[in-house]
Amino acid sequence: MLRAIAIGLPLTVLVTILALMIGTVVALPIVAGLRSKNRILWLMSRALVDLLRGVPPVVWLFILYYGVSIGAIRLTALQAGVLGLGVVAAAYLAEIFRGAISSIPKGQWEASSALGFHRATVWSRVIGPQTARAVVPAYTTFAIGLLKDSSIASSIGVAEIVFMSSQYARQSGEGIMVFFVAAGVYILLSVPLGLLSRHLDVKMRKAVAR
Amino acid sequence: MNNLVDVAIQFGPTLFDGLKVSLTLTLLSLAFGLPVGLVFAFGVTAANKTFRYVSVFFVEVGRGAPALVLLQLMYYGLPNADITLSSLASACLALTWTTAAYSAELIRGGIQSVPPGEVEGSHALGMSYRDCLRFVVIPQGLRIALPSLMGFAVLLFQATSLAYSVAVPELMSQAYSIGSSTFQYLPVFIIAGLLYAAISIPATWLSVYAERMLSRHL
Asked: Which residues contact residue B149 at a Cβ distance below 8 angstroms, ignoring those fewer than 6 apart?
């Protein structure tokens, strides 16, 4: 039983990390769109975010896995899982980033332009660092949520923790323990993430507090 | 595109039946989960140790474990304990657990943001502890927690799509069985996705609107 879960563990971690990476990168242009003054660009990114968040992740995975074929090429379960969870994550992260950016006091923008900073400097030296600080709690909360959502990849056959445990449960006919252990593993995995978040938050708060 | 319309016309009614099951499952889980969540909200800070430990266990496992694990636990696991539930009942039980755990934390947050002066005030007026909770703390706490509870309800509705894995005939499993019998996977899943979106996007707007309305006087 423990072996089944141990075999699934690396894929759970892999799917979570890859989806988080894709999500973070794809979120950036979406945030730019959400903050854009161009109405069309804004509307398109708004619609994209609402659509990605309005449809359950499992539907996206099924569309990518069963529905998409480019010529004779089909996505593997892992590719479809990572890609699907990644783009859904991008939509959620875009909202998180947007919220963090708009929580930066207006005076920071005004002061930067009063000092004649270049746009790139404003982002890299003034707004960027403060946003990074503001985003940490929500980002790690989301990462913990994504860790749990990575279990959805089991539905298209990625052999991660849930897939392995449910296979074990069906083979051995012994379902209670294995799922409780699986639940325990998810909880144990999210504890270090939560601690890391608190640590970063405290550290960053100290950096600003004078 | 034509294909999409054909599939929609041919399988619309079946998918719609599935959507009804999804909505029923959502409402049942909310109806059972929210009252339990309210109890747990007080349980996790209760002075009584047994009550507190039981609440903390259910809240932490309910929030820490993926909904998919709970679903399969109820469906594949419980028969080991000589409890065999129908797929709908086991899905309902699992999602009730999830609902209770998440709403406990949301309600606790709402209750804690009720100003302590309110409690002191009702104490000074000679209200019993029970009356103070019943008429002062809980109504205000629930009002503060309402927008986030609505947001959670949308996520729960989306989570019912996972119940296909325990053979509940909801929208996703209808879509999957149509897909696997006709090989029209893409159009069927797109229509299923649009049906989900047609409910969860307006519901999200509603929760944002509720937040705005309720925070007006805060």
From this structure: B34, B103, B106, B107
Of B64, B176, B190, the CB nearest to A183: B64
Confidence category of residue B94, pLDDT binned at 50, 70, 90: very high
Instruction: Please report which helix (H) or strand (E) contains residue A210, including its range.
Output: none
CA-wise closest residue to B172 among A159, A165, A60, A169: A60
Joined together, the tokens standing for residue B201 give 């996007």
pLDDT exceeds 90 at position B29? yes
Give the pLDDT confidence of A21-38 residue by residue, as tens digits. 999 999 999 999 999 899
Q: Is 0.90 exceeded by the ipTM?
A: no
Residue B82 gets the label, from left (phi > 0), alpha (psi -120 to 50) or beta, of left
Q: Which amino acid belongs to residue B208?
A: V
Q: Which of A67, A174, A190 comes nearest B189 by C-beta?
A: A67
Indicate the pLDDT class of residue A177, thresholds 50, 70 and 90. Answer: confident
The tokens describing A65, both together, are 């896995």
Torsions phi, psi for A52 (to 5 deg): -65, -35
CB-nearest to B165 from A155, A174, A190 is A155
Residue A52, both tokens: 């990605």
- The parent domain of residue A153 ranges over 2-208
Domain boundaries B2-214, corresponding CATH code: 1.10.3720.10
**C-alpha to C-alpha distance for B70 and B53, rounded to whole angstroms:** 20
List of chain A residues whose C-beta atoms are within 8 Å of the C-beta of residue B204: 50, 53-54
Q: What is the domain count for chain A?
A: 1
By C-alpha distance, the chain A residue nearest B76 is A175
Q: Which of B111, B147, B68 is nearest to A156 (CA)?
A: B68
Domain boundaries, chain B: 2-214
Which region, left, alpha or beta, applies to residue A157 given φ > 0 means left and ψ of -120 to 50 means alpha?
left
Q: What are phi and psi of A74, to 5 degrees?
A: -120, 150
| Nearest C-alpha in A relative to B164 | A155
Q: Is the pTM of this model over 0.90?
A: no
Chain B interface includes A192 (CB < 8 A): no
CB contact under 8 A, A176 and B162: no
Establish if A116 touches chain B: CB-CB under 8 angstroms. no
Give the CATH number for residue A37. Answer: 1.10.3720.10
Given a contact cutoff of 8 angstroms between Cβ atoms, the answer to whether A65 and A75 are in contact is yes
